[in-house]
């Protein structure tokens, strides 16, 4: 399954009912952003994130760690946690495994994540080892601090960058906690696709087969196939909505940059293969016009379209798995998308 | 009836199906903007404006004149028409009664407007007289240039600023053309409400009772009542959607500036009186958060809300007219809205 990203208690430009309409059963919320604005206490007062944003399907919140390491300034990390200045008002904040649990308990998502350190992929073995072992200890502390384990499933996050031995140790440490699910972190952060597949190849074997496996931050069609084939069940990514707002549409026959002049008078559907509101009601020429005139409806329609493309792809994958045709589906989809063309425009 | 404004073939931030859901049966499109982008020829190729923007309800297009007089540079007006530089790419363009008809025939709206000169309210009697007489001649030329009078109803526009005699002459000139409807132009352009009511008082009597009367650019609740009472049937205004995007909500109990800090933890509905998606699914605190974090969904929800407020107000007025209770409704609505409070925040 694929989870659209709703960073600030909203999947950008979409109503909750529109998300349901395109088949989204799960969205992701960002703890870091919600902690700062409007604050987890306020969301708790509202009755939790589901109620605050009117989303009656499932939610997963991350731990806030990734944003602390990618957005915040003046970070310092110790065994206890991370001190940093936030990127909104510059005030100093402190995030620890316990704080991340307190915030996520307040937000009330269905799946919550342990705090881990988002280690850059090409750090030294010694640093990654130290960090990964600390993240495993943080998982233990998160479990102990978790106040409502019957309502919220706590996932651990396997780290270890590209080091087989560290990934193995991390997976085994977390598996020993018997958590309801496991994420694989520290991938899709700049390493090659071959490299990511190599890590997945040797990491998933150490994770329990009967627990969901979640690969964080992946949303390109070829990577989704590569990862599902290697045993991954869950994904999230800002890609479909972020490129949508720039005018890039994911279609069956590859990327369509709708702002391109050639679509000015193209009165064909956005994607004849798709059943969403945007694809069935509007032409490429109309969406070109909306982007050309900076109309807000452009972002909404393009986001609906791209998310439906990915959600439908996951539906097709699930059906193919049932029928043992996943490899056939992969070949067909990637061929049509243009992954095999020398000059294909992908993302 | 009230027509939401869809300047560039979209009512800003709203899907056509959302407009239908809130009871909009008619929208207005701006000829000036559509002529420049994407061009009326392109819209004709798309099958007309209804099809281009997927709107299967009615559309009225203006003549483009108002925007030429309010947005364009280097205007020069002669008997033949207006030459100007457009505000998008600065190129020189020429608009005449015949060109305005050609464009509007291409756009294919259900009601189309004659080209007139939008005269400033406080011009001299001599200038207004000259201009109003020319506008009446332009109405005649528009009628002669109209290519599809069975599909598109051409409305004339009464001008004459605040001069009783000029309004009378203008109305009589137009009435002699036996057009399917009449607009009153040159009001709501900076004159006082008392002044506008005075002009309506002496203008409507010269317009046929069996033809619709359209007051252009009016959307404040008190002015809508004042005008309906004086015999006006149709309105359009950017007010509800424009103030929505700034965070101003029109509610039963007056204007709510949702960006105000006091709404941060106000978990009440936007407006308990309204039945639209925004009012029934989201709290003031949530909308405050969306505006506070510059989320695109804010503009959509606030626009749905304000348009539904006005469309519902018109529904209530129609019912009140049927029951001969319009004055009672006016008193109740304006009292609740706060028009009688000394420090009321209106618009």
Description:
- 2 copies of one chain form a homodimer.
- With 347 residues, the first copy, chain A, is an alpha/beta fold.
- Chain A has 2 domains: 2-236, TIM Barrel; 242-337, no CATH class.
- The first copy, chain A, is built from 15 helices and 13 strands.
- Chain A has helices at 16-21, 31-36, 40-45, 49-53, 65-70, 97-107, 125-145, 164-175, 193-203, 221-229, 239-245, 277-281, 284-292, 297-322, 326-337; strands at residues 2-3, 26-29, 58-61, 73-77, 82-85, 92-95, 111-113, 153-158, 181-184, 213-215, 234-236, 248-251, 254-257.
- In chain A, the strands form 3 sheets. In chain A, strands 1-11-10-9-8-7-3-2 form an 8-stranded parallel sheet. In chain A, strands 4-5-6 form a 3-stranded antiparallel sheet. A two-stranded antiparallel ribbon of chain A has the order 12-13.
- In chain A, strand 7 (111-113), helix 7 (125-145) and strand 8 form a beta-alpha-beta unit.
- In chain A, helix 6 (97-107) packs across helix 7 and helix 13 (284-292) packs across helix 14 (297-322).
- The longest helix of chain A is centred in the C-terminal third of the chain and has 26 residues, at 297-322.
- Chain A binds chain B through residues 8-10, 12-17, 33, 37-38, 42, 45-47, 52-54, 264-265, 267, 277, 281-283, 285-286, 288-290, 292-293, 295-297, 299-301, and chain B through 8-10, 12-17, 33, 37-38, 42, 45-47, 52-54, 264-265, 267, 277, 281-283, 285-286, 288-290, 292-293, 295-297, 299-301.
